[in-house]
Write a structure and sequence with these properties.
The chain is α/β, with parallel strands linked by helices. Helix content is 39%, strand content 17%. Helix 2 links the parallel strand 2 and strand 3.
Length: 310
C-alpha cells in the first residue's frame, strides 16, 4: 500500500506534472479513430475505443464494461471496444494519446483529460453523480459512530485514502478535511504515513481488517459492498458523509468527430442519456444518465489546486 511522507509533493503539483506530460504527448500526434495520423478516417472501419478508471478490482474490468460497448455499438451502428486501464493516470494518458476516445472518468481524472486534449467534452453523468458524496469510515475498535459533525478524532488515528487521483477517495475528502479543520492532510493527521490503497473497495477492506483505523471512499462502493455481504457492519461503519459534489462522467475525445463525422459526439451523448438498457446501467452502477458539460465540473479544478500533502 502506497503512502505519502512529509515533504512529498502536493497533490496539486503531482496532478499538474501529470497533466503537463500528457499535454506534450497529446500535442505530438494527430488523433483519429485508431490513435494514429490518418487524414481520411473511414467511418465504416473506424473503432470507438473506451475505457474507465479502475475504481475497484481491475481483474474483471473488461467483463464489467462489455455491456456498455455492446449497447453503444448497437445504438450507434459502429464497432466499439473496451480498453482496460490499470491506474487512474493510465486512463488519462490513453485518452491524451488517442488510444481511447471515450472514458468513464471521475471528476479529477475528467478534468485532467479535458485539460490535456483541447476540445474534449464531458457529455454524460449518472443522475446520482451530480450529488455524489464520500464516506469517512472507521474500524469498530475505534469506538467511533456516525455523526452529523466532522469526526475530528480521526486526526489521531491511522487513515487511508484510495487512489491519489481519486475524486471521491482522496481529493474531495481532503477538501472537506481542510474546510472543517483549517488544516491540510499532513498537518491534520498525526499518525504517519497516510495510506493510499489504490481503490475504493481496497480502502473499505483495509479499514475493516484493521490495517488502517479509518479511511475515505465513495458512498456507492461502500453501500454495494455492505449489501453484497462483503463488509461486516460489526467491524466497519460509516462515521461521516460529506456534502454533495459532481463526480463521475463520460468524456468524449474530439477525434470522434473526425472518425465518425461532424455531430457524432452529440449523437453519442444522446445515446448515453437515453439509455434504458439494464445491463449497461448495471455496469455503470447507475439508474439513469443525464447531460452534463465541462462547466459542471469547474469546481473540481479549483479544489485540485488547494489539496496539498506537504
Amino acid at each position: 500500500m502506497n503512502s505519502f511522507k512529509p515533504g512529498d509533493r502536493s497533490i496539486a503539483q503531482m496532478l499538474k506534472c501529470c497533466t503537463s506530460s500528457i499535454l506534450i504527448a497529446g500535442a505530438a500526434i494527430v488523433l483519429t479513430s485508431c490513435g494514429e495520423k490518418k487524414a481520411d478516417a473511414d467511418a465504416s472501419t473506424a473503432v470507438l475505443r473506451f475505457s474507465a478508471i479502475p475504481d475497484a478490482d481491475t481483474t474483471a474490468q473488461a467483463e464489467r464494461y462489455q455491456p456498455v460497448a455492446d449497447y453503444l455499438g448497437k445504438k450507434l451502428g459502429i464497432k466499439v471496444e473496451f480498453v482496460s486501464s490499470d491506474s487512474y493516470p493510465a486512463s488519462v494518458q490513453k485518452f491524451a494519446n488517442g488510444d481511447i476516445h471515450l472514458a468513464w472518468f471521475g471528476g479529477v481524472s475528467g478534468v485532467q483529460a479535458r485539460q490535456a486534449v483541447e476540445g474534449a467534452r464531458a457529455v454524460a453523468s449518472g443522475e446520482a453523480d451530480l450529488t455524489f458524496k464520500s464516506y469517512f469510515i472507521a474500524n469498530a475498535s475505534t469506538g467511533l459512530t456516525r455523526s452529523e459533525d466532522f469526526p475530528g478524532a480521526i486526526a489521531n488515528l491511522s487513515f487511508t485514502y484510495g487512489s491519489a487521483s481519486s475524486t471521491s477517495g482522496c481529493i474531495m475528502p481532503s477538501h472537506f478535511i481542510m474546510e472543517n479543520t483549517g488544516k491540510g492532510p499532513m498537518d491534520f493527521f498525526q499518525k504517519k504515513p497516510i495510506g493510499f490503497s489504490g481503490a475504493h473497495d481496497k480502502t473499505a477492506l483495509a479499514v475493516q481488517d484493521g490495517t488502517f483505523q479509518t479511511g475515505a471512499l465513495n458512498f456507492s462502493t461502500f453501500d454495494k459492498m455492505l449489501e453484497a455481504g462483503e463488509l461486516d457492519p460489526a467491524k466497519v461503519n460509516v462515521i461521516w458523509e460529506t456534502p454533495p459534489y459532481a463526480d463521475y462522467n463520460f468524456t468524449a475525445h474530439p477525434a470522434l468527430e473526425e472518425a465518425f463525422g461532424e455531430g457524432f459526439i452529440d449523437k453519442l451523448r444522446d445515446a448515453l442519456v437515453s439509455c434504458d438498457d439494464a445491463a449497461t446501467l448495471k455496469a455503470l452502477g447507475r439508474k439513469k444518465l443525464v447531460k452534463v458539460d465541462n462547466d459542471t465540473f469547474a469546481g473540481i479544478a479549483s479544489v485540485m489546486e488547494k489539496v496539498k500533502f506537504d
